[in-house]
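Lab meeting, item 3. Inverse folding demo.
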C-alpha cells in the first residue's frame, strides 16, 4: 500500500526556536546537563506525557534560575500545564514568562511575545472569570515598536472595549 501525504494536508508540528543554540557536547558540563534536562522535558511534552514534562520543566526552572534558556523552559512549562488541563497553573506560568520581559517590549517571535498571545487567547475564550484578573494595563510602545504588533487596530479596539 502506498501512502502519500499531500502538502498542506498534514499540519506541521510548531516548534519555537531555542532561546540559545544548543551547546556542543563536552564544552561545559553544567550547560550539557541543562541541555539534557530541557531536551528530556521537551521529549516528554512531544510524547504527550504532560505530568512528566511539567515535573522536568519545573526542575529545570528551579535548578537553573540564571540559565539563558529559562524563558524557553518556562514557556514549555506553561504549555505542559495547559495541555494537562491545569489552566490556573498555565496562566500563572504564562504570566511568569511575560514578567521577564516587562523591562522591554517583547520581540515578535520571542517566548514572551507568544506568552502574551496565549494570555490574550485565554482572555478572549474565557471572558470574565475568576481565572483571569480584570485590571487596567498600560503599555508604552515607541513608534517603531508598533510595527511588531500584528493587527494593532484590532488590538487597540479590544483594549478600548475592555475599559
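The presenter then showed the designed sequence:
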Amino acid at each position: 500500500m502506498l501512502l502519500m501525504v499531500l502538502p498542506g494536508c498534514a499540519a506541521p508540528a510548531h516548534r519555537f526556536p531555542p532561546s540559545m543554540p544548543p551547546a556542543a557536547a563536552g564544552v561545559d558540563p553544567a550547560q550539557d546537563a541543562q541541555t539534557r534536562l530541557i531536551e528530556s522535558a521537551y521529549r516528554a511534552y512531544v510524547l504527550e506525557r504532560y505530568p512528566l514534562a511539567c515535573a522536568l520543566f519545573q526542575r529545570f526552572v528551579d535548578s537553573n534560575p540564571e540559565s539563558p534558556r529559562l524563558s524557553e523552559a518556562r514557556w514549555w512549562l506553561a504549555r505542559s500545564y495547559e495541555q494537562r488541563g491545569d489552566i490556573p497553573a498555565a496562566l500563572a506560568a504564562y504570566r511568569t514568562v511575560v514578567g521577564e520581559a516587562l523591562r522591554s517590549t517583547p520581540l515578535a517571535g520571542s517566548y514572551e511575545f507568544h506568552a502574551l498571545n496565549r494570555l490574550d487567547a485565554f482572555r478572549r475564550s474565557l471572558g470574565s472569570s475568576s481565572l483571569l484578573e480584570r485590571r487596567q494595563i498600560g503599555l508604552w510602545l515607541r513608534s517603531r515598536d508598533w510595527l511588531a504588533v500584528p493587527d494593532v487596530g484590532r488590538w487597540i479596539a479590544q483594549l478600548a472595549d475592555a475599559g
